[in-house]
Design brief:
Blueprint: H1 12-15, H2 17-25, H3 27-30, H4 33-41, H5 46-51, H6 66-71, H7 78-99, H8 107-135, H9 141-167, H10 172-183, H11 185-192, H12 206-218, H13 223-232, H14 235-242, H15 244-251, H16 255-284, H17 286-299, H18 302-310, H19 314-342, H20 348-377, H21 379-389, H22 391-399
Helix pairs in contact: 2-8, 2-9, 7-8, 7-10, 7-11, 8-20, 9-10, 9-16, 9-19, 13-20, 13-22, 14-20, 14-21, 16-17, 16-19, 17-19, 17-22, 18-21, 20-21
Length: 414
């Protein structure tokens, strides 16, 4: 029997996901958007600033070293919390080191520091996803995902817009040192976080940490259908989001109007959607929640098609972004719960990282072609196309029992 809506959020295992999400999201803007603002302020040329974007590739390539985090167990706090602790300490030290580097005179030093910082930030994401999967029970997955998303989004706001506002009052060096100090809360939170109830043995060798997760996943019954869902469930949102700002500017909205509605109202709607999604998934069950939320999040893009047809309308802008972000939050909570369900506890770090990376790559590939569709056929056709992109995932979920795709019962690695 599923937990009632409110009960889904009362567990200590779910509650700890809020600060862990905050710690996971905090470094992201500090190695991307916030960093570029500092570099531009320091007079660094645009070519150099652009090259620093390569550091964020670590977030897309994190599956490459995820097996190491499954195979080797730190000497303290176990396989998941131990790596959380180590990565959080490394990030705090990295942020402090960045604060003493001058971007205008030491770009090479800064580049190496940001690359290391991005690596440890991506590593924290790997372990945070694995810990969230391993530490929560089946009926807590969606609510844990929702609370984690809440913390992550708040961190993006704090280290993104908050850091920019703060930089008008104090130096960038002080901003990064304050963020480093805030990051030190992570080890305290991790130390008191509950250990997963079931702690399977780590894979016996590095080869096993790579081969066994792949073999286990790709020999499951219904694996092809699982992959269809993973690869296409969020692709429509990803493609639409990639071109949303150019679309809104093309309709006639100013950057201020877009930023105000997207960054503030849109953020609130996403958080509300995620929290509702976590609670309702506990009531509906994962498969039914994925179907309902998948239809809703895809259909939300039709509001943008209407906006493209009607033209500039502030009321329709607010409605479109509000509905889009609310439904996106619903779908995200259920989808993250699905990734958790698909990950075997023995190899959570690698399997989760691989699935999430594959999903993001497919979204980027379709997004790259989206501009040509909008250019050749117009914005209304483009947004209708994004709705159709999610149809395969919903169709598979409608026709196939989800239990066939989920992870097997725990057993010792061989």
């Amino acid at each position: 029997m599923t937990l009632p809506f409110i009960e889904a959020y009362r567990s200590r295992r779910v509650g700890v996901m809020l600060p862990l999400g905050l710690m996971s999201g905090l470094p992201n803007p500090l190695v991307t958007g916030t960093l570029t603002a500092w570099m531009a302020t320091a007079g660094v040329d645009l070519g150099t600033i652009g090259l620093f974007g390569l550091a964020s590739l670590t977030y897309n390539l994190k599956f490459l070293w995820a097996p190491l985090l499954d195979r080797y167990v730190p000497p303290i706090l176990g396989r998941r919390r131990g790596y959380l602790l180590l990565s959080q300490v490394a990030i705090a030290l990295g942020l402090f080191f960045v604060s003493v580097v001058d971007p205008s005179t030491q770009p090479t030093t800064l580049a190496w520091a940001i690359l290391a910082l991005s690596f440890f930030s991506a590593s924290q994401d790997i372990v945070a996803d694995a810990y969230r999967t391993d530490a929560t029970r089946e009926n807590e997955r969606a609510s844990a995902a929702a609370v984690f998303v809440l913390g992550y989004r708040l961190a993006l706001l704090l280290a993104g817009g908050g850091a920019l506002i703060l930089s008008d009052q104090v130096s960038w060096q002080v901003v990064y040192r304050l963020m480093a100090g805030l990051m030190l809360l992570g080890p305290v939170i991790t130390f008191f976080a509950p250990e997963p109830e079931v702690v399977p043995d780590a894979p016996p060798t590095l080869y096993a940490a790579v081969w066994l997760p792949l073999k286990e996943f790709f020999t499951r019954r219904g694996v092809v259908f699982s992959l269809i869902v993973v690869l296409t469930y969020k692709v429509g949102d990803s493609v639409a989001g990639h071109l949303l700002t150019p679309f809104l500017m093309d309709v006639g909205f100013s950057r201020t109007e877009i930023g105000g509605v997207q960054k503030v109202f849109g953020l609130v709607a996403t958080i509300v959607g995620a929290l509702l999604g976590g609670g309702f998934t506990a009531r509906l069950g994962l498969r039914h929640a994925l179907i309902v939320f998948g239809i809703l999040q895809a259909s939300a893009n039709l509001f943008y098609a209407v906006l493209a047809h009607v033209g500039k309308s502030h009321a329709l802008l607010i409605t479109s972004i509000g509905v889009d972000n609310l439904m996106n939050g619903l779908g995200t909570a259920a989808f993250v719960a699905l990734l958790m369900a698909l990950s075997d506890h023995r190899y959570t770090a690698f399997q989760y990282a691989l699935l999430s990376s594959a999903m993001s790559v497919v979204g980027r590939l379709f997004g790259a072609a989206g501009g040509f569709i909008a250019q050749d056929f117009g914005w209304p056709v483009f947004f209708v196309m994004t709705v159709l992109l999610s149809a395969p995932a919903v169709a598979v979920l409608w026709l196939r029992p989800l239990a066939e795709a989920t992870r097997p019962k725990l057993e010792a690695p061989t």
